[in-house]
Design brief:
With 178 residues, the protein is of the alpha/beta class. It has 8 helices and 4 strands. A 4-stranded parallel β-sheet has the order 1-4-3-2, sandwiched between helices. The N and C termini lie far apart (67 Å). Belongs to the barstar family. Residues 34-130 form the Barstar (barnase inhibitor) domain.
Length: 178
């Protein structure tokens, strides 16, 4: 890797896109930058995410486990520890669940955008790459805690006629069934 991340602005938060985690780690090493990685695949909500980031980034124990404290740890605390060469951050599998909706995801990414701005003012590269998790089926333990029927619980009739009725182009089947 001759010029790692040469086509990526030095202070940015962006989708991981064509990069792999291994490539980003190698780029950080080649540039002499800190590599911070958090796999958020097991997170279900904001507290889970903050806990995983805190643990995997090895943030100080006094981290308040909120977005403001995360910002403080990634800016002031690190800045006060001495000169920094740069950062490559990866947030992999940010959840896309009802408990961590689009607004919550944007709030999290805004913290990293603010951190990128903080380091840009100090002429220190801070590149953050993220990916979203794909929707996954709930675990059996999660299903036991809810009385809500699943969509698949409502599907009772799987006869050929019922399947044809599901097509909007077979209105005749709908009329004959009524």
């Amino acid at each position: 890797m001759e010029q790692p991340l040469r086509n990526v602005r030095s202070n940015i938060v962006q989708s991981i896109r064509a990069f792999t985690v291994k490539d980003l780690q190698a780029a950080a090493e080649a540039l002499g930058h800190h590599f911070l990685y958090a796999n958020l695949a097991t997170a279900l909500n904001k507290q889970d995410i903050l806990e995983l980031i805190s643990t995997q980034f090895q943030l100080p124990p006094h981290n308040g486990k909120n977005l403001d404290a995360l910002y403080d740890c990634l800016t002031d605390t690190v800045f006060k520890s001495g000169p920094q060469t740069g950062f490559v951050v990866v947030l992999e599998h940010i959840p896309t669940s009802p408990k961590f909706d689009k607004e919550a995801r944007e709030q999290l990414l805004d913290v990293f955008r603010d951190v990128a701005d903080f380091w840009a003012e100090r002429k220190v590269p801070f590149r953050c790459f993220y990916s979203f998790s794909v929707a996954r089926a709930p675990k059996p333990a999660d299903l036991e805690q809810t009385d809500e029927p699943l969509l698949t619980d409502k599907l009772v009739d799987v006869s050929p006629q019922a399947l044809r009725m599901s097509s909007p182009f077979n209105a005749g089947y709908w009329l004959s069934a009524a």
